Amino acid sequence: MGSRITRAAPHLSEQAVRERMKREQRPWCRRRWQIMYEALIAPREAEDIATTVGVSLTTVHQVMAGYKREGVAAIETPGKGGRRRGYLTLEQERVFLQPFLARATQGEQVTVAEIQRASEEEVEQAVAPSTIYRLLQRHGWRLHGVSSCPASVPENSHAQKERVAVQKQTLPPTRHRERAVQRSQSYPSDLTDEQWAILEPLLPPAKPGGRPRSVEMREMLTAIFYVDRTGCQWRALPHDFPPWSTVWSYFRTFRNDGTWERIHTTLREQVRVKQGREPTPSAAIIDSQSVKTSQKGGFAVRP
């Protein structure tokens, strides 16, 4: 039996594929173009191409088949995450909500049902109520309450749903403000405003693409400091903090990407400069300590 040679479809020339591979910034997309480039310059078995590029054999087969069917569109896909299926962009959503915000500022109650109807007119297609709730949550709106309805109207009817009012807060709700209302005393590990002002610029920004951060970074840091201060288990984290799994995930990420080390180094340098010293020490002293043992080495044999 002869070996099966993997050849690239002739959608683009070898030079064009090489230029796209060099220009591509996304690693996963660049590897796709590298697969095509290897198949163009030296058609050979898929196993050899997979070893050269550093991908699985399945990936090579999928990329080659997709490129044969769809061409360049199969290689330069948008990737995972993001809001590609959203009806409006974030800026368009802000403009869309402005009239309702003006009414809410004047003390009027705006219902979810009328926002849903206005949204359907805007995008000219049906919009689910859950989409409206996510839209309002993204822009800091919250449910304000349910109005009373006549006794003749069933409890779960559409008429009652239209009476669900939505109100825009002056400041977007945050877990830090919610916790301040829920308890009169703070934890000893809570960050002060001055401490947070120092630490906030040292945290890495959110990764581009995908869903935006849903957790407030100040509360996340405070939760980590609470575990460090009290020594409690991650699962025993109080419920007024973000979910323990989210806190642990950020702790692990910051440990692996060197964030904790960078924070420690930056704070140490700031303290040294404030004391009138050089940011980094110019000398180091290694101290050793003798530990007393028995007078003779080896094992002691009891009679």
What would your notes on this structure say?
This protein has helices spanning 14-23, 27-41, 46-53, 57-70, 72-75, 90-105, 112-123, 129-138, 158-161, 175-182, 193-199, 217-230, 244-256, 259-274, and strands spanning 110-111, 141-146, 164-168. By secondary structure, the protein is mainly alpha-helical. The protein folds into 3 domains: 14-75; 90-168, no CATH class; 176-274, no CATH class. A 3-stranded antiparallel beta sheet has the order 1-3-2. Helix 2 packs across helix 3 (46-53) and helix 12 packs across helix 13 (244-256).
Present the secondary structure layout.
Elements: H1 14-23, H2 27-41, H3 46-53, H4 57-70, H5 72-75, H6 90-105, E1 110-111, H7 112-123, H8 129-138, E2 141-146, H9 158-161, E3 164-168, H10 175-182, H11 193-199, H12 217-230, H13 244-256, H14 259-274
Gist?
The protein has 303 residues and is mainly alpha-helical.
List keywords for this structure.
14 helices, 303 residues, 3 strands, mainly alpha, 3 domains, 3-stranded antiparallel beta sheet, single chain
